[in-house]
Specification:
It is a single chain. The protein is α/β, with parallel strands linked by helices. About 40% of the residues lie in helices and about 20% in strands. A hairpin with a 3-residue loop joins strand 8 and strand 9. Helix 1 runs parallel beside helix 8. It is flat and about 60 Å long.
Length: about 375
């Protein structure tokens, strides 16, 4: 399991350029005019994790299989999208299908690339997009809540729960605040997510800066980071132009290029880590002579459910998980050494899988 992240933003902020770099394809057309991306482009990318290569080297694995995540390049929204302006309705539906939003914000000045509103103001750009998402949610909830309240008054317990959640969200939306700020309990989470509210999606702000600011950002990106801190969101700085240049280089040349521009790693790595942080995701590994493979789960996932990511039969017949922490696996030079050092554990159904665990599941057919 990875996650599906929709790349959104105003036209001409670098969304498609970033998408091309992230997926190392030219599938998304990056042109200097609004709505050049009409259908959402979808790309799967491998999640870079140096731990996987280390494990494979120790185990002598023939194949390395990273976990993957999906990026969806969604065309540029404009003011009035919630009312169908531009190609608004279609794009809002694309966002609804994503787990999170990567909001690309223009944090660079370039007279050759027009801004749809004629000025560079990243915080205002954020507010424009967020307003459209909130207006769409407000319209959606106000159409549904009356019928839901009627069912609740008739004694429908599920309808009562939903109408309570809807009204909490409506209070926020009418006050100009996104639905993700609603106080939702763990028991209500599934119902809340089932509402499909656009402004309930976790947000990652991607500050697209000029090449010279790729390492530390600039005044524009600092304003975005401050905004992110205020709302408990995450912000990362990348230069989509640099990322697009890195993407077409052979792997052997990428390190030299990164050093030349003062970067330790591609922006893709930072975007992925920020996405994991945003969605509370962790990685576990299965390691053997045949393959070393990474699997992504939500933080707090227990053994049987983690096994179910590999195959539903593993979850149904789960007996226990043979477990070695990543650091112990490396320090003991593999499974045999970990067993000898007492670092090999058998964990049951209540075990919460930790990031970096190396697991082998025992299950009944």
């Amino acid at each position: 399991m990875g996650f599906k992240c929709g790349i959104v933003g105003l036209p001409n902020v670098g969304k498609s350029t970033l998408f091309n770099a992230l997926t190392q394809t030219a599938a998304a057309q990056a042109a200097n005019y609004p709505f050049c991306t009409i259908e959402p482009n979808v790309g799967d990318v491998a999640v870079p994790d140096p731990r996987l290569e280390k494990l494979a080297a120790i185990a002598g694995s023939k194949e390395i299989i990273p976990t993957r995540l999906t990026f969806v390049d969604i065309a540029g929204l404009v003011r009035g999208a919630s009312k169908g302006e531009g190609l608004g309705n279609q794009f809002l539906a694309n966002i609804r299908e994503c787990d999170a939003i990567a909001h690309v914000v223009r944090c660079f000045e370039d007279g050759d690339i027009t801004h749809v509103e004629g000025r560079i103001d990243p915080v205002n750009d954020i507010e424009t997009i967020e307003t459209e998402l909130m207006l769409a949610d407000l319209d959606s909830l106000e159409k549904r809540v009356v019928a839901m309240e009627k069912k609740a008054k008739g004694g429908d317990k599920e309808a009562k729960e939903l109408s309570d959640i809807m009204n909490r969200c409506l209070v926020l939306l009418r006050d100009g605040k996104p639905a993700r700020l609603a106080q939702i309990s763990a028991d209500e989470r599934k119902a809340f997510e089932g509402l499909g509210l656009l402004s309930s999606k976790p947000v990652l702000y991607v500050c697209n800066v000029e090449e010279a600011a790729a390492d530390k950002g600039n005044d524009f990106s600092e304003k975005v980071k401050a905004r992110a801190r205020e709302e408990g969101a995450v912000a990362v700085v990348v230069s989509a132009k640099i990322e697009s240049e890195i993407a077409i280089l052979p792997l052997a040349d990428q390190k030299d290029y990164l050093e030349a521009v003062g970067l330790e790693e591609p922006g893709l790595n930072r975007v992925i880590r920020a996405g994991y942080q945003l969605l509370d995701l962790v990685t576990y590994f299965t390691v053997g002579p045949k393959e070393a493979r990474a699997w992504t789960i939500e933080k707090g996932t227990r053994g049987p459910q983690a096994a179910g990511v590999i195959h539903t039969d593993f979850e149904k017949g789960f007996i226990r998980a043979e477990t070695i922490a990543y650091d112990d696996y490396v320090a003991c030079n593999g499974e045999a050494g970990a067993r000898e050092a007492g670092k090999f554990r058998l964990e049951g159904k209540d075990y919460v899988v930790q990031d970096g665990d190396c697991l082998h599941f025992r299950f009944a057919n």
